[in-house]
């Protein structure tokens, strides 16, 4: 069983580093100060979900002080978030070697081991953690799940009892115990737990899916349908949910509803084999033979070894009078499964249709002989049972003995010709979260505005968009060739630098710092250092550099644009860190707003206003101001700023897109359609997806 979504509370510490002090320590003290400060920056970057860059900071801390446990521990969390479970396990072991009392390292290592299938070792880690804190919610939770996986049902039940006695409103605990009870065969207890989980939180999908599974096994189709409806409301973008609801609707004699669900599932995922296969069977049932054959051909193009689809396509072709191609399908099955007797009856019928009565009789007799020998001595003369795709795996998954040895041949063939369901439509196991990262509230697809523009050293790859990113003062600065690199105006700093690029940026920062120690240091060098630190997400150091640049040259437009973006990024990071700190300290049970406070952004607006005073045609300053107002929910001001940007550049597609989103938020659907349509025309492709969803 794979488990997902682990989080450990990070004790976020603000790194108030200046751009000079970080690099100008004497050699004897550099390692000591560097390790601590780099570790803090790495933790801040990790809290912003930039895992690759955070690993680079932790690597530096490890080089400076390899005997510290924390860099290994936080690097393990970053690797865990990247699903590098083996690397996370190794790093946690290294952290524990250095500090065996670091209980959180046992939690992370246990979680990584669960994902690696080492449930017994994970339980051992959780037991050590529980010695330090016997009532830690997530040690208990993960341990109970691991015990369930090792089929220690009594132990799991005992652990769940302790967990839910201590945390009676922990909805995921009730969901997990419900799953345990399903595996034990106690559906009454399972339903009680799942009902309790849903009463505590109606935003979790897994209780609905597990309850629907119990209900459709009981053939209680109305209740199963209602739970699948609820699951789809929570995750309307998951095609497999529609496949499973279609199965329920079909069994409720709602043929048109089932067909509608399969059609929509294929709109979401055109290569969904379960939807294609099931739609083919429904079309076959109403004798829409040509389109049924097309669907099964599509299945086979995706999975050439799907003999379930091949057999049914052969039957459809035979009924359509396409006897030659039907024989090709049946013969392919017979070559692979020479003891699969139904295919010989199908071949006999096909030969009869072709007028070859002699061959038809021989094939029928061969099928009779296979069945006769099997009846006389099943062990000596077993029959072939081709894999039955999703239906096979689904039924085996729920079988108590892991197989189907007790099924009759009639039952096997009934399964071979029925609709399939998708067993893992969403993470039906559970979602394991301590909810310290910002993406928890972002699980559903969010419509996000096009990002703000920042000063960086990374060129933007060519795209369909018509925007030129021309910025007069920036171009003039590059033309002067004061430094060896070019400055660029790019949409955000969201692309995380890889190992080589990150190392290169660190080296460049060192070079600039050394240069600024000498009289040769210029404002442009300090600007370059500020941009480098911003790309490395060391916002305090970047701000100190940019503040000094503007102090030296109050008319440096590029510096105002750079500082405004860094101030905005730092405000977001600080607010996010404060919320996560509060959540990890459990100081507040109130929901946290996703929007930044406008009070913290006044300085950002002031920088853009100053840049506009120096250059009234600076379209990107207007655009970025619009994004700031949008982020705090002031859609009227945002629309005004985007409008000013469009006055300066009527071909600015991103401004149309973001203004369209602002109009949507303000309830002006007609104007939103107009702006989004224009944005799509100018190359902002997400516009079309939004327009389609709105229609």
Describe the structure.
The chain is globular, with a radius of gyration of 31 Å. It is 66% helix and 1% strand. It has helices at 27-47, 51-64, 70-81, 85-98, 103-115, 119-132, 137-149, 153-166, 171-184, 187-200, 206-217, 221-234, 239-251, 255-268, 273-285, 289-302, 307-319, 323-336, 341-353, 357-376, 389-398, 409-416, 472-480, 499-516, 523-535, 539-552, 557-584, 602-614, 619-631, 635-648, 653-666, 669-681, 686-694; strands at residues 453-456, 488-491. It has 33 helices and two strands. The protein is an all-alpha fold and 695 residues long. The two termini are 39 Å apart. Strands 1-2 form a two-stranded antiparallel ribbon.
Shape: globular
Q: Roughly how much helix do the residues carry, as a percent range?
A: 55-70%
> Main β-sheet: number of strands, strand sense, barrel status?
2 strands, antiparallel
- Low-pLDDT windows of residues: 1-33, 388-417, 425-446, 462-466, 587-591
Structural class: mainly alpha
Average pLDDT over all residues: 82
How many beta-strand segments?
A: 2
What tags apply to this protein structure?
695 residues; 66% helix; globular; disordered N terminus; two-stranded antiparallel ribbon; mainly alpha
């Amino acid at each position: 069983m794979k488990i997902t979504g682990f989080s450990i509370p990070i004790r976020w510490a603000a790194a108030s580093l200046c751009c000079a002090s970080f690099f100008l320590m004497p050699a004897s003290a550099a390692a000591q100060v560097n390790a601590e400060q780099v570790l803090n920056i790495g933790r801040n970057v990790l809290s912003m979900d930039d895992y690759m860059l955070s690993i680079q900071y932790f690597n530096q801390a490890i080089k400076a002080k390899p005997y510290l446990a924390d860099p290994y521990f936080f690097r393990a969390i970053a690797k865990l978030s990247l699903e590098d479970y083996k690397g996370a396990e190794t790093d946690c072991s290294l952290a524990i070697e250095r500090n065996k009392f670091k209980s959180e390292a046992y939690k992370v290592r246990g979680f990584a081991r669960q994902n690696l299938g080492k449930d017994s070792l994970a339980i051992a880690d959780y037991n050590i953690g529980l010695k330090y804190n016997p009532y830690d919610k997530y040690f208990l939770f993960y341990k109970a799940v691991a015990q369930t996986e090792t089929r220690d049902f009594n132990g799991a039940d005992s652990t769940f009892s302790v967990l839910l006695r201590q945390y009676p409103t922990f909805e995921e605990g009730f969901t997990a115990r419900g799953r345990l009870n399903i595996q034990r065969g106690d559906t009454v207890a399972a339903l009680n737990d799942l009902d309790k989980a849903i009463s505590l939180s109606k935003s979790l999908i897994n209780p609905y899916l597990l309850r629907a599974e119990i209900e459709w096994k009981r053939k209680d189709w109305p209740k199963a349908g209602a739970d699948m409806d609820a699951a789809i409301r929570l995750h309307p973008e998951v095609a497999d949910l529609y496949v499973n609801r279609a199965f329920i609707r079909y069994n409720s004699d709602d043929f048109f509803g089932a067909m509608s669900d399969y059609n929509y599932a294929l709109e979401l995922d055109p290569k969904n084999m379960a939807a294609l296969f099931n739609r083919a069977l429904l079309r076959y049932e109403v004798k829409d033979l040509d389109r049924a054959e097309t669907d099964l051909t599509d299945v086979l193009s995706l999975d050439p070894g799907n003999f379930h689809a091949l057999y049914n396509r052969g039957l459809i072709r035979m009924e359509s009078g396409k006897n030659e191609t039907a024989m090709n399908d049946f013969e392919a099955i017979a070559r692979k499964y020479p003891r699969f007797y139904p295919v010989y009856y199908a071949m006999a019928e096909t030969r009869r249709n072709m007028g070859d009565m002699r061959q038809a009789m021989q094939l029928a007799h061969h099928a009779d002989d296979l069945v006769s020998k099997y009846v006389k001595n099943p062990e000596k003369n077993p029959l072939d049972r081709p894999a039955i795709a999703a239906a096979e795996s689904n039924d085996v998954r729920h079988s108590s003995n892991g197989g189907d040895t007790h099924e009759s041949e009639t039952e096997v063939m009934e399964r071979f010709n029925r609709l399939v369901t998708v067993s893992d439509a969403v993470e039906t196991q559970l979602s394991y979260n301590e909810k310290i990262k910002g993406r928890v509230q972002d699980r559903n697809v969010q419509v996000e505005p096009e990002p703000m523009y920042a000063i960086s050293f990374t060129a933007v790859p060519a795209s369909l968009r018509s925007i030129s990113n021309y910025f007069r003062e920036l171009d003039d600065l590059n033309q002067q060739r004061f430094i060896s690199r070019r400055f660029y105006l790019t949409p955000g700093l969201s692309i995380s630098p890889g190992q080589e690029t990150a190392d290169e940026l660190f080296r460049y920062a060192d070079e600039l710092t050394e240069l600024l120690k000498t009289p040769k240091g210029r404002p442009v060098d300090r600007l370059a250092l500020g941009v480098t630190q911003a790309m490395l997400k060391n916002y305090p150091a970047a701000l100190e550099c940019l503040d000094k640049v503007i102090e030296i040259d109050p008319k440096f437009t590029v510096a105002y644009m750079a500082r405004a973006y860094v101030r905005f990024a730092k405000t977001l990071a600080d607010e996010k860190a404060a919320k996560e700190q509060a959540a990890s300290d459990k100081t507040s049970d109130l929901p946290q707003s996703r929007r930044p406070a406008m009070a913290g952004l006044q300085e950002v607006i002031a920088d853009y206003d100053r840049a506009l005073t120096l250059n009234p045609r600076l379209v990107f300053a207007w655009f970025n101001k619009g994004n700031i107002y949008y982020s705090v929910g002031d859609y009227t001001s945002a629309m005004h700023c985007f409008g000013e940007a469009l006055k300066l550049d009527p071909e600015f597609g991103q401004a149309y897109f973001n203004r369209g989103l602002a109009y949507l938020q303000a309830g002006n659907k007609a104007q939103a359609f107009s702006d989004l349509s224009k944005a799509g025309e100018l190359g902002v492709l997400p516009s079309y997806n939004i327009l389609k969803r709105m229609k």
